[in-house]
Specification:
Layout lengths: L3 H9 L6 H4 L7 E2 L5 E5 L4 H6 L6 H12 L9 E4 L13 H18 L3 E5 L1 H7 L6 H4 L4 E3 L2 E6 L2 H6 L4 H18 L16
Parallel strand pairs: 2-3, 2-4, 4-6
Antiparallel strand pairs: 1-3, 5-6
Bound molecules: uracil (URA).
The site of uracil has 13 residues, from helix 4.
């Protein structure tokens, strides 16, 4: 198994699909490499491509704010990455061939992390990690257990920005995620919503 730095270095040089030609930065992942909780989005947007970090645009800020309400902070207790590590032009959905070319990196990230809880952000990540033809409207918040790892999906934060009426469902899903983390993640400390993470 590759070490984190080796894997990130290989990913930074990747030419496995045409997205390599249009990217500014490869967006490998962010957060704690010893986390037991993994969030997975679909692919970098404009800000992520410019900054080289996942979920740093408007959707990412909303996500960070919502996760903080259930004690989750990327500096403290989770890792976050995407199905594709390079921005699809004009934020279109990643294509099947691009996802197939890139998923090996996510599998290796998961092999290194050994997460206990995996949360897919939106349908595209859920299609890759939970099952084909995932229906986010019907299936969000449901849990699937495989070999002691618990998988679920919530609405993508960009969908919440477009349609805030989905937020109450997402808060209910996040509370269930917090409860699952308490149940199965023995090393994970959830912060109180009133305690800012160290360094902020
Ligand atoms: N949307 C995603 O799916 N991933 C990001 O990193 C940013 C926005």
């Amino acid at each position: 198994m590759l070490a984190w730095d080796t894997l990130a270095g290989q990913c930074a040089q990747c030419q496995n699909c045409p997205l390599a030609q249009t990217r500014t930065h490869v967006v490998f992942g962010d957060g704690r490499q010893d986390a037991q909780v993994l969030f997975v989005g679909e692919g970098p947007g404009e800000q992520e491509d410019l900054q080289g970090r996942p979920f740093v645009g408007a959707a990412g800020q909303l996500l960070d704010e919502m996760l903080a309400l259930v004690g989750l902070h990327r500096t403290e207790n989770f890792y976050i990455a995407n199905v594709v590590k390079c921005r699809p032009p004009r934020n279109r959905d990643p294509q099947a061939g691009e996802m197939a070319a890139c998923m090996g990196y996510l599998w290796q990230q998961m092999a290194l992390l050994q997460p206990k809880v995996v949360v897919c952000l939106g349908r595209i990540a859920a299609n890759q990690l939970i099952h084909d033809n995932y229906k986010i409207t019907q299936e969000h918040g449901q849990w699937v257990e495989r070999n002691g790892v618990f998988f679920t999906a919530i609405y993508h934060p960009a969908a919440l920005l477009r349609d805030p009426s989905k937020k109450p469902d997402t808060f209910a899903d996040l509370r269930a995620i917090r409860d699952k983390v308490r149940q199965v993640c023995t090393r994970t400390q959830l912060l109180s919503p009133f305690t800012p993470p160290a360094g902020s």
